[in-house]
Model the fold of this input.
Amino acid sequence: MPDPLQTDAAQTGALYDELLDVALEAAHRAGVLLRDGRPADLGVAATKSSPIDVVTEMDLASEKLITGFIGERRPDDGFLGEEGASSTGTSGIRWVIDPIDGTVNYLYGLPSWAVSIAAEQDGEVVVGVVAAPMRGETYRAVLGRGAFSNDEPVHHRPAPPELSQALLGTGFGYLVERRAAQAEVVRTLLPRVRDIRRGGSAAIDLCDVACGRLDAYYERGLNPWDLAAGALIAREAGALTGGRPGRSASHELTLAASPALFEQLQPLLDELGAWHD
Ligand code: IPD
Ligand code: CA
Done:
């Protein structure tokens, strides 16, 4: 008689394989659309939380392509997308989608933008894919199976011996009051670290921690679609992710870093008030 535990594990493995396959294909298709189909005169189609929080026609086209493709392959799944996709589904799987992370970079023709697609099973992220077409790189992770850039395994950077040698990434929200508070945190941190980068795509920042291109990344105000895929990729690369002490990465605060640096940065960011406006 087959061992029921082994059968369960095999079924879970096959499900994750399928979800990864669907996410990679959807991210690839959207990446090609965005890279090859960007209109030379691309403009702002609408604004959201503030006049600088923009949406382009390509954000909308990318989300439509992704949800259309996934919906055909897995009709019973739910969706949460930055541009409005929202449904519960009946399978226990929900797709969390950022059709362009780094929309302002994309608008200006800067290369740091990505398509971010995560699959949650009963609320837990089990698959994450971040495609960065202008880098020629796609990052991916499946829960418990490590993280990869294209087909190469990736690992976080060893923690620097001192905080003063750490290269941090961060980002700023679209609301004026939030930015003012974020600037105060940067003002205190900048003299205490090697340097701070503001790349413009949270998903890529998290993957840069995974690949050892940043020692750490933190930001307040992220939405689930900004962080779902990238945070799994960072964790599967051996980094820790979290928010305020004892909390998970969230809108309030997201931090990703190698374990030793995480232990130093988490209380420091808490003390500096990186979690409030
Ligand atoms: C933004 C980017 C940016 C981060 C903002 C996000 P969007 O996402 O990830 O790096 O600083 O907090 O909102 O608007 O380009 O999808
Ligand atoms: Ca985003």
